[in-house]
Amino acid sequence: MKLLLMAAAAGVLMAGGLLLIAPVVILAATVAPPSGAVGDTSDALAADRTAGGPGPVIAGDVACPIGRPHHFTDTWGAPRSGGRAHQGVDIFADTGVPLYAYRAGTVRLTSSRLGGISLWITSEGGDRYYYAHLSGYAPGLQTGSRVEVGDLVGFNGNTGNARATPPHLHWEVHPGGGPAVNPTPYASAACRGATP
Length: 196
Fold this sequence. Notes:
Elements: E1 2-8, E2 11-15, E3 18-22, E4 25-31, H1 41-50, E5 58-59, E6 62-63, E7 89-92, E8 98-100, E9 105-112, E10 116-122, E11 128-134, E12 136-137, E13 146-147, E14 152-155, E15 168-174, H2 184-192
């Protein structure tokens, strides 16, 4: 992550015989790296924590897939464009909020018209987890990367068909690599710090 600093230099101004002194103003902002940025994932996670980020919520062998603050409701099966049914849970948070590995596994980076910048994590047991609408990947993350529970994998956004919506993570759970199941109970438990 980059830290941007902007400073307005102190200045002196004469106005109607009054001496005005403009104070120095320093603004700092944390900026998520651009899509596909490369670097060391562990450094990025450490930067998230030292920059005041709370880090991931981890409960045993799972982690909440998104940083705080966030909010979501169960929208499993809700109608979507083109006659589709919603196959995930949309977890809303600001653009750039960190996204974390729900479970340890191997990453495959993808992108599509619907999901935008997206990725899959496949656990050793064959369960698959889909993350869509990212604003970018974690530095150094690439297809074939091994991640541990709670590792930084990306940043929240609204890419793909979510361009006109508030930023959110579309998250899916595919047990055994099969069809999607309602992920809301998984997200609810993990984000509360409980094991599903």
